[in-house]
Amino acid sequence: MLIKSSRYSPRKDSRNAGRVNPIILSGYLPSAYVHKIAPRPLLFQNALNDDLIPRSSVEILYNTAGPPKQIIWYDCVHGRIEKDAVVNIVRDGLAWLKNQQTLSAKL
After folding, report:
1. How far apart are CA 17 and CA 26, in angstroms?
2. Which of 19, 69, 70 is nearest to 39 (CA)?
3. Which segment of 23-27, 50-54, 98-102 scores lowest on mean pLDDT?
4. Rounded Cα distance, 14 and 35, in Å
C-alpha cells in the first residue's frame, strides 16, 4: 500500500463523512462484481480523507477483488484535489498501466 501526500485537509463540514450518497450507487453493489475482474489487473486510487466513499468501503472492495491488484492512497479529499496531486495521480496511473503492458508482453 502506498500513501501519497497533499496539502488539502478534510472538509470542515463533515456531516456526511463516511456515507455514500445512495443516488450514486442506486441499484449497484460494486462488491458483488469486483471479484469478476480477476485475473485482470486492478488499480485502486483513493483519497485518505474521502468524505464521499468511506475508507472501510474501499478496503472491503479491495479485499473482495482477486489478484493481481494494487491500492494507492493519496492524502487528499474527494473532488478537491490540487493540480500537483492530480498530476501525481495521473502519473501513477499511467506508470501502473505501462507496468501492466510490460508484464503482459513477457507472457
Report:
1. 18
2. 69
3. 23-27
4. 31
